[in-house]
Each structure stands twice: as C-alpha cells, then as structure tokens.
Amino acid sequence: MGKFYNLYLDETKYNKDGKFMYGIAGMAVPFNKVRNMGRMLGKLKKEIWSDLSYTETKKIILHMSDIRSANIKFDSNYLVFSARSMKRKVFEGIGDILVENDCVVFGTMVNLTSLEQKYCSKSTYYIGDSICMMNIINNFVCFLKHQNAKGNIIFESRADHNGNRSDLLLQKQFYKIITHGTNIYKPIEIQKVITNIKFKSKKENDAGLQIADFIPSHFMINFCGNSQAKINIYDKLKKLRYSGGLTQGGIYSKDFGVCYIE
Length: 262
What we know:
With 262 residues, the chain is of the alpha/beta class. Helices cover 46% and strands 20% of the residues. It has helices at residues 34-48, 54-58, 64-68, 84-100, 112-119, 125-147, 165-180, 187-193, 207-212, 216-223, 234-240, 253-256, and strands at 3-16, 19-30, 104-111, 149-156, 194-200, 258-261. Strand 1 and strand 2 (19-30) form a beta hairpin. The N and C termini lie far apart (37 Å).
C-alpha cells in the first residue's frame, strides 16, 4: 500500500430547546498533501494579518466559533474579524484549502435525546462517541480499502485543567473497535488499514485540526434543521463527503460521508 491518509476529527455539541445532540466530523487528507495544506493555511493567515510578520501570523490559531464572534478574548488579533469581509476571506480560504488538497469529509451526528426516548436509556457523550466512532471507522475503512491505502486518526484533544479523561475514554472506544471489530468489519480488516489514533491540543497549532474545526458545526446546524450562518462553506463541504467506492458528493454521501442518526 503506497497511499496514506490522515483523518482529522473534531467534535460538536448542541444542547438547546430540549435537544441533546452530539457529533464528530472532519476530513481525510492524503499524507503527501499535508505539507501543502499547512503552507496554504500559513499564506491565508498572512493575507488576513498583512501588518504582521509571517512568523507572527503562523502562530495565530484559527478557531471557527471565535472567528464568527470576533472574540478578542480568545486572541487579540481576532479584532480583524469584526469586518465581514475578513470573516468571508477566512471561510472561503478554508474551503479552497479543502478542495485543493483532495480532502474527503467524514462524520456522524447523533440525536441523543431521540435515542433516550426510543430505548429508555440515558444517553451520554460517551455513548455519542461510541456511535460516532463506529460509523466513522466503518466508512474510513471502506474508503481506505477502495484507495488501497492506510491511514490514522488525529483527534483534537479535549483535555482541560482537570486532566485528559475525555481523551482516554475516546481512545478506549477506538481500541475496543479495532480489537472487536464493527457490525461490518472484522478486527483484522480494520487493523490492516487504520494504524493509530493520536490526540493533539489546539495549542499545538496543527494545520489539519484548524481546518477540521470548520467542518462539524456546519453539519450539526443542518442536522438540527437550523439555517446556516450567512457566511458558511456548507455547500462546498457537502460535495466533499465520501459517498462510497471512489466517489464523493454522490447520493450515498448520507451513508458513507456524514451520517445523521435519529
């Protein structure tokens, strides 16, 4: 197998109006495109903060929700996003990076409230992780097998001042899946193509995770039946969803790309 992919993933939550929703989504990137993806992100940052040096702009971390609110508490440099034109520039730039680097979108959104009602069982984020990871691994394995490739998973760390328990629990889910298999793949089939899972913090300034940060909430908004923000890349993301075989953006994207589980 010559090809290798990094699958960058991030989570999203929606807990409002009696809805308890959870999701994980992101994109697979060919390993030989990772460096170019980083260069493009660095160039985009320099275009946004043209008055700063390249070294200074490279250190700025892009975080979608704080960009939308121009949150200077997250980073004082975010004042630039008070201008709608700059918000549009960063979203369009992220969309271009995804397309140019042959990214493939994967994800799963789960209505935990609905599952509670159907199965008379308390739904938690742990259950959400289990459902999401099972679906994403099934589809990522399918993709890798068709590409005659291998890959690993890079997840944005959820560690905080209380420790990294959330990361350890998700890591446990991952190892359970590759040890026992899924409803579709035997353990050995998964182990042949998925090599590992890694956790990286936002502070590590990983280009892949910064780009993946823009993906989950677009699908969560759609899953909840809400309207997308005026500045968004949802239409572009839909076309990048895996749809089985060697295809993207086709009619089976809802099965192989981003699944909605009610």
